[in-house]
Design a protein that fits this description.
The chain is an alpha+beta fold and 107 residues long. 33% of the residues lie in helices and 31% in strands. The chain has 2 domains: 1-44, no CATH class; 46-107, no CATH class. A 4-stranded antiparallel beta sheet has the order 1-2-3-4, with no helix packed on it. It is elongated and about 80 Å long.
């Protein structure tokens, strides 16, 4: 009786732990989207509204591989393409400031 329980435990416990580790790894890699409750965490970014007056916006990011990514950041009407790898961040390209009529169309 006890031997059967220990045998089932020895099979089920590594299986469940392995599935949990696989889920965490796939969320980290971006293959599995986070559930809705994760959006309510204080570290999650909320959708921006018209009332927000912050001059800094993260427009888009793209992962290039482990530890390397590209990001488009809007700062004071300019879009900047930034590369990030390890501890280094490099400005790759920058656009001219938006004209007032263009800024109204983008927002």
């Amino acid at each position: 009786m006890l031997g059967e329980f220990l045998l089932r435990l020895a099979v089920a416990l590594p299986l469940v732990c392995g599935l949990a580790a696989l889920c965490l790894w796939s969320v980290k890699r971006g293959w599995l989207p986070m559930p809705g409750f994760a959006l309510r965490s204080p570290h999650a970014t909320a959708p921006r509204t018209a009332r927000d007056s912050s001059p800094l916006d993260l427009i888009a990011t793209r992962s290039l591989g482990p530890g390397a990514r590209l990001a488009v950041v809007r700062f004071d009407g300019r879009d900047h393409l930034v590369g990030q790898s390890g501890a280094a961040m490099i400005l790759i390209a920058s656009t001219a400031p938006l004209q007032p009529e263009q800024a109204a169309c983008v927002s």
